[in-house]
Amino acid sequence: MSIPKKGTRKIIVDGEPFIWLIRRQATNSQADDPEGHLHVAVEHATESGSVLVVITDRFHPQGYSLINSELVPIQPQDGSGEIRAWSIERRYEITAVTPKDVALWIKQAMQIGWLPRKSGITFEVNVIGSSIKKSICN
What we know:
The chain is mainly β. The chain has a domain at 9-64 and 95-134. The chain is built from 2 helices and 8 strands. It has helices spanning 28-32, 99-111; strands at residues 9-13, 16-22, 37-44, 52-59, 69-74, 85-90, 123-128, 131-134. The protein has a 6-stranded mixed β-sheet, covered by helices on one side. Strands 5-6 form a two-stranded antiparallel ribbon. The radius of gyration is 19 Å and the shape is elongated. It starts with 8 loop residues before the first strand and ends with a strand.
């Protein structure tokens, strides 16, 4: 399976061309999960092979986290003072995924067994601190 080409970014890692993509719209699980994180899909740019999916440690901007949010009362416009609604406000910052991050994750994935030129199932990894770990589902 390959990733859609529209919206991808190109990156060269150790002389090899790759394309990568972050889904613009949150999936239902990313938006609904209190720990919904960004996913990055990567594949070799010129040869078909296995797709790398990196589940990052970064929150998806369209998701929410009850752990990192607080309920704030919405003051009624009628002046009654009776609070009838609340809003969820984030207390965490969204951290961008940079090309430098993607390059590091590609190198680490290849070190733990991802073969970008070899056909096969999606190679899924999780970012844990400054390193990655292969997902259990692989």
